[in-house]
Structures are given as C-alpha cells and as structure tokens.
Write a structure and sequence with these properties.
Layout (H helix, E strand, L loop, with lengths): L7 E4 L2 E8 L6 E5 L13 H6 L3 E5 L18 H15 L4 E6 L1 H12 L4 E7 L4 H7 L5 H4 L1 H6 L4 H6 L3 H7 L4 H11 L4 H11 L19 E6 L7 H6 L8 E6 L5 H4 L1 H13 L4
Parallel strand pairs: 3-4, 3-5, 5-6, 6-7, 7-8
Antiparallel strand pairs: 1-2, 2-4
Length: about 280
C-alpha cells in the first residue's frame, strides 16, 4: 500500500474527491454516503475510527464530486457506482477492505458483496436492508408507502424543481441536524449536483448484463446491519428479513434513532464498525 495520502482518484474519465484519514498502516475502511449526503456524512464517525487505529477513505460518490457528474441516468446503474468503489480500492492498493455504507451507500455495499466478495473483509451497513429483503417486504408491510417518494424521484426535472430551495427545511423535519441539512443543500446547489444525486434513483435499477444474477447470490461477507426503528423510509419488516440474505457472520443492531445514523449516532456506528473490523462479533 502506498505511504502517501490520496485526495482524489479517477475512473472512466471521472475524478472523485477523497478524504483520507487515520494511520496509513491501519486496516482500510471505505465509507460510502447516501442521498443527499457527502463525505461530510462521516465527519463525526471517522475520528473515532482513527482513534481505534483504522484508516478511513470517504469519497464524494458519482453525482456528488464536482468532476464526476455524468448527465445520463444510465451512468448511475449499480454496476457503475460499484466499480467506482473498486476504483478507489485499486487507487490505494488496498487488500480486502472493510466497507461501511449508509442509505444508497448501503445499497452499494450489498451489491459489492454479491459481485466482488473477495475485495471485502467485512461490511457494516446502516439503515438500508438487503435489496431482496426490501422487495419481499413490499406486499407484506407499509414499505411500499414508505418508498413512494422513490417513484416521484424517477420523474425528469420535476423533483429538482420541488426540492430546490426546500431541502434544508425538509431534511430538518425528517430529523437531520440543521448543520448537516444546511451543508447538504449547499453542496447540491452546485451545477449538476442535484440532478446527479437524483439520478441514483433513476438509474440504479436499470438492467446491466455485467452483473446479471448478482442479486440472487447470498452475501458471504461478515456483516453487521444497523437499523433505526424510527426510520421514516425503511421499515422493520425488511430489516428483519435481511438476515436471510447473509450466509456469513451476521449481527443485527436496532437503535432508537431515525434514518440519519452517521449524523445522530456516530459513537454507536463507530463502535459497531470497530467490532466488525476486529472480528469480535459474528
């Protein structure tokens, strides 16, 4: 592994901004944010991981990094965003890494566990259930109603108009602290950023022959799944079904929190990540 810090990496002509922290010789933990966050999502979690001897790599994902905002929804398929993570791992020359993902970052973690399990030493997934558990929960719970906003986000242009200038207020109403809500809206005011962020919803489910059959594979990466029981978007049924999709060491952690676990419960997120990295819980 190179001895230098990295501030960015490139893949397929796109440049991604990275925050690289902690001891260079520590186990590598890749931190994946979701919508509408950024690498700042991990600002309270990363220092705790550094104190435990872990090196963290947090990057602004596709659509969020200033020089990585392709305009087409097809550029945001699961295969593309997952290969961005592999590009980062390659850029630092890391052995199998420990992956932590929240929201869409959690979806990417599940996808990578299916298509590239040898690249992962462990996963800590926050909020997002396994996709197959999510699908199974739709006819048996209120999850379809909870997910209705995702259908709206599929529309062209209208979601951008509805969200622009209103995001801080909406995010605060959902339980996100004001400081984070203000920062996330500020970042999404940059040219192309809001459309890039929404394109995750528009492109993620598009078929891609490169990863055909990946969704049906059991997860064979040791996994901790952390869920907040007051999550407005992701309900209990899918959370409880997720265990059936993991054929490796598994731990389910239920917190009395909302959706925004990295921002609201950084100490617990860090503790569960450290325990998973160290193999103390399975």
């Amino acid at each position: 592994m190179p001895a230098d810090r990295i501030a960015s990496f490139t893949r397929s002509g796109l440049r991604f901004d990275v925050t690289d922290g902690g001891p260079l010789d520590g186990p590598v933990v890749v931190l994946l944010h979701g919508f509408p966050g950024s690498r700042q999502t991990w600002s309270s979690v990363a220092p705790l991981l550094h104190d435990a001897g872990l090196r963290t790599l947090a990057f602004d994902q596709r659509g969020y990094s200033r020089e990585a905002r392709p305009p087409r929804r097809s550029d945001y398929r699961a295969a593309e965003v997952s290969r961005d993570v592999l590009g980062l791992i390659d850029a630092v020359g890391a052995a199998p890494v420990h992956l932590v993902g929240h929201d869409w970052g959690g979806f990417v973690a599940w996808h990578l566990a299916a298509v590239a399990p040898a690249r992962l030493a462990s996963m800590t997934v926050l909020s997002t259930p396994h996709p197959r558990a999510m699908l199974a929960s739709l006819p048996r719970s209120a999850q379809l109603l909870r997910s209705a906003y995702m259908g709206f986000f599929q529309l062209p242009r209208l979601p951008e108009a509805a969200l622009r200038g209103r995001m801080t207020r909406m995010l605060e109403a959902s339980g996100l602290p004001a400081s984070h809500a203000t920062e996330y809206e500020r970042l999404l005011q940059e040219p192309g950023a809001l459309t890039g962020a929404l394109n995750w919803y528009r492109g993620m489910a598009l078929p891609d022959r490169r990863d055909r059959g990946a969704a049906g594979r059991p997860v064979r990466v040791p996994t901790t799944y952390v869920w907040g029981k007051r999550d407005f978007a992701l309900g209990r049924h899918a959370a409880e079904l997720t265990e059936r999709q993991v054929a490796a060491g598994y731990r389910f952690v239920e917190l009395d929190e909302t959706h925004w676990l990295p921002e609201l419960a950084p100490e617990r997120v860090a503790a569960e990540t450290i325990a998973r990295v160290r193999g103390a819980r399975g």
